[in-house]
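Incident review: delayed structure delivery

Summary: a single-chain prediction request sat in the queue longer than the usual turnaround. Root cause was a stuck worker, restarted by the on-call engineer. No data loss occurred. The affected request and its eventual output are reproduced below so the record is complete for anyone auditing the incident later.

Affected input:
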Amino acid sequence: MSIDLASALRKHKPAKHTAQFVPRPREKLIHWTTLSGVHSVLLLDTNVYISRAAGRLPATLREVIDQALLFHCSVALAELTAGVANANPSRQGWPALRDHYIALFAAIPATRLITPDAQLWADAGVIAGTLSRTQGFQPHQRKECLNDALIFLTAAKAGIPVLTANRDEFDLIQQLAPAGRFIHY
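Output delivered after worker restart:
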């Protein structure tokens, strides 16, 4: 498979975007409470796994996640593995952290793991580069935006919304890739 940069540039039109993007008002976006009682199909952003492991999700949101058909993106899982490896193994809670994520990864069926292809990497690069330029992102923000764009576009290609706490950045990404969907909490 080859990468069609010309197609990515035509699709996302970075040269057209010179002004800073503005996040839309919260009421214009989909909030997780609209999912209550509904069996949903979701892809979790990295922050959802982390908040859940830390016990920071509302009980009703945990129930929605438990009832959903979950898909997992290799990019989010890689971010989690970096966090586990970056955690101090001499800290008291490290074995529990390690064991939690080992069990989580072991429970993911291969049929529910989705991975960005080469073209999605190019599309995500165009989106992240455009947002980095228009929003004035710092170098670390550019890398985070690339990962978020990869997660968003991978889910969009599969027709699955992303559940995330990162409302503003996913909103900006969606403004450049309107075919994708996200749900914030």
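Verification: The CA atoms of residues 20 and 134 lie 5 Å apart.
Action items: add queue-age alerting; document worker restart procedure.
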